[in-house]
């Protein structure tokens, strides 16, 4: 936790459900409800609802950052919403930003395997096991990161189900996209 801002972070591991297509679309889950992370916290269904509604009213968006660095935005989250599973995100890595191109290549190669949410806890409680139940969160950003905390959160390629995406095909798509960009 950043003691100056109260910003906390939760990590989600990329995998079969987290991919990027050749047109730089990235989608999947940045957080799952009811699953304990490595820090012992559990996000409760509905925890993001008030924050997402406030952002919409204020016509603001959740930021897509590189490694939680506010000086390194790498894309745009076009859709951030809660569903029955968790916090679903869908957006575009910006290939006009050097770090966005790097992120595409690193995901394709398997070198980056995580998403992480940056948030402030508004309401929380302890369960019978002493784990923190996160009931209301103020969501600030979703970052691509190296080290995830919630191993089960994933992103899927455009048009695929969020289960069973083939990372070898994704790596090949990234390589094709990289070659195409190099020709421009």
From TrEMBL:
Entry-linked InterPro entries: Peptidase_S78_dom, Prohead_protease
Gene Ontology annotations of biological process type = proteolysis
Q: Which GO terms describe its molecular function?
A: peptidase activity
Protease listed as a keyword: yes
For this UniProt record, the keywords arranged alphabetically read as follows: Hydrolase, Protease, Viral release from host cell
Protein's UniProt name? HK97 family phage prohead protease
Q: Which NCBIfam families match?
A: proheadase_HK97
Q: Where is the Prohead serine protease domain?
A: 22-160
- Domain of life, per UniProt, equals Bacteria
Coiled coil start-end: none
């Amino acid at each position: 936790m950043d003691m100056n801002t109260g910003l906390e972070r939760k990590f989600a591991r990329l995998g079969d459900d987290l991919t990027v297509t050749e047109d730089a679309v990235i989608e999947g889950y940045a957080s799952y409800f009811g699953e304990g992370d490595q820090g012992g916290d559990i996000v409760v269904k509905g925890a993001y609802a008030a924050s997402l509604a406030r952002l919409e009213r204020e016509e603001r968006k959740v930021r897509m950052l590189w490694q939680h660095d506010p000086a390194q935005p790498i894309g745009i989250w076009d859709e951030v919403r809660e569903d029955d599973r968790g916090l679903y995100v869908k957006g575009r890595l910006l290939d006009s930003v050097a770090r966005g191109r790097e992120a595409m290549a690193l995901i394709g190669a398997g070198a980056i395997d995580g998403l992480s949410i940056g948030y402030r806890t508004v309401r929380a409680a302890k369960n019978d096991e002493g784990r923190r139940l996160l009931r209301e969160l103020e969501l600030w950003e979703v970052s691509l990161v190296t080290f995830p905390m919630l191993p089960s959160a994933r992103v899927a390629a455009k048009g695929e189900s969020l289960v069973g995406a083939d990372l070898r095909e994704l790596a090949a798509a990234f390589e094709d996209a990289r070659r195409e960009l190099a020709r421009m």
